[in-house]
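Section 5.1 Outputs to date
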Amino acid sequence: MGRLLAVALAQRGAQVDLFEQGGPHALESPARIAAAMLAPLAESAITEDNVVRMGIHSLPRWKQIITQLANPVYFQQDGTLILWHRQDASDAERFAAHLEKNSATNPLLAAPQHLDSAALQAIEPSISERFTQGLYLPNEGQLDNRQLLAALLEELDLLKVTCHWNTPAEPEQLQLNNTYRWVIDCRGLGAKTAWQAKTVAMELPPALLQPNPLRGVRGEVIRLYAPEVKLRRPTRLIHPRYPIYIAPKENDVYVVGATEIESEDLSEISVRSAMELLSAIYTVHSGFAEARILEMATQCRPTLKNNLPEIQIKRIKNTSRLMLINGLYRHGFMISPAVLDCALELLESGESKTALDLGLSVQREPDVESFATCV
């Protein structure tokens, strides 16, 4: 979100400084570890309707954002494939029914398509020998998150954005040392202290005083080089404990993950998770047996109590204003353009038509400028 906003504001003619605790390659960022799947229908099984609407809004916006970048970014919109083994058929039926209900109530979602053996052979021939049925979710997509981070980095340079790498900074510190009209905090879990203190000394309505603490939700991901596997699109396997995903990137690289652990532990991936992920994907395609493990990584998704993203705006020292953006949880790439559009509109006019169109709530304090929120 920080790079997206910095680029978008610089493209609009703003003078932007970017402060980053880490280096330019985002080695410690959840955005580097993520699979970057753009799957609103698949995610509708486990998330709220407004997040789904943000995902629908964001798919065409990603195309616009990427085409404006100087460097190419891999983007694919060939749908999502859902698979299951015979013993998990009842779970698959419940999952399919949930998606069918969601697509029926939201006309912007394409209905899931049930695949028999012949249809599966046509859509994903490399796994048709192991599975005789599946579910296809049209229009869903993915992008290459690492290419995107690199392309945004290049764009920051082209737009002459001043980047302060390896420079931790608190919003109040920036305001004391410099004269900024706005300070925008996109630090994820790095903003935990600032987020908890955002309502201090502010006379907010009772509804806004309810605690919404920021926490980390651990995820574990494996990157593989698997030239014998030729999956064409993101594939999810219905699993007794969690839905495993396999996201194919360019040059025979696959990102595999699924785990969600209520912990801010950033230690190495556990043996249990690694064994479950690797054994599960082998049952999808035997070619994974000869794959090479490029990386096993962990990160924590910044998550609020309600699992929804939020934007908060307040004053700093009665001069400039502070915007805090956080809580994108497991849907960061899927909803980032929607959150970006809401933030830009709030920055420019104090109102957000996009938020209203997506069914998000926007609340403002009586003094108009001191506080607004978009949830």
